[in-house]
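Re: beginner question about structure tokens

> Can someone show what the tokenized structure looks like for a real chain? I only ever see the sequence side.

Sure, here's an example I had lying around. Input first:
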Amino acid sequence: MLSDGSELPYALFLGVPIHKAPAVAVSAGMTENGWIPVNPLTSETRLPGVYAVGDVTSVGTPKAGVFAEGAARVVAQEIASQVRGTPALGSYDGKGSCYIEFGHGKVGRVDVQFLSGTPPTGTFQTPTEALTAEKGLFGSTRAARWFRGPASAR
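And the corresponding structure tokens:
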């Protein structure tokens, strides 16, 4: 609904930018069919000690930040383990949650898991006020951690 109370003539618009590996990765020979192939459980490329996460990979999860964040957490733990000379703590499971805006202050959530060894699974939580508040907290904690928060928030 627009500020003047009128509504636009469509019910839903989804816009997704083109996802592709950057030219530097392509020119470095890191891509196959436009993506950087990685081990889906560790995000390691075919170059030992080199990792890739997010929209540039062929990991098999959606191109959403929550999945890149989960993969990056595993990569950080892997690198820390290598530096410390300790065993790696775990692998990436492809879990993530995506919030869905329904308008009029209604937010639902889908929880999915892509890399459990079985076909992807997911559950849908119907829109509630609690999920609307949860989505707001999710966004604000990420913004604080990534862009302006103290080290304790990171």
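Each token stands for a local structural state, so reading them left to right follows the chain. The mean pLDDT is 86.
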